[in-house]
Amino acid sequence: MNFMQLKCWVILPLVIICWLGVSLPSYGQRFTIDYGHSQVSHPGPGAKSTKKLAIKSPQQASSRAQRQFGGKVLRVQSSQVNGNPGYRVKLLSDDGVVFYATVNAVSGSVSRN
What we know:
- Residues 57-110 form the PepSY domain.
- It comes from Shewanella gaetbuli.
- Pfam families: PepSY.
- This is PepSY domain-containing protein.
- Residues 39-69 are annotated as: Disordered.
- With 113 residues, the protein is α+β, with helices and mostly antiparallel strands.
- The protein has one domain (25-112).
- 29% of the residues lie in helices and 33% in strands.
- It is built from 2 helices and 6 strands.
- It has helices spanning 3-23, 58-69, and strands at 31-34, 39-42, 72-81, 84-92, 98-104, 110-112.
- The chain is elongated and about 65 Å long.
């Protein structure tokens, strides 16, 4: 096998894999946004919610957790909290301890894990 044949056997599958990864829709999947100081994970465009929410955004969840426990918000991810939609907030306390808080988006309650 010469160099050109080897190149075709290696590059062509990589191009196909990259094309498939870019072209497939991501409805209903989560995606993460990096704001530099924190990352926020959102449900994808296909995700549906039928419950009325007290907390409607990752920003509201992070500010509620920070207001209750203090510290610096490191990351926010959407998650299930007691069977309800909610958020998991990763915080760094003033004394250097990393901990998680869960925010129930339906009730608005915040608890430390």
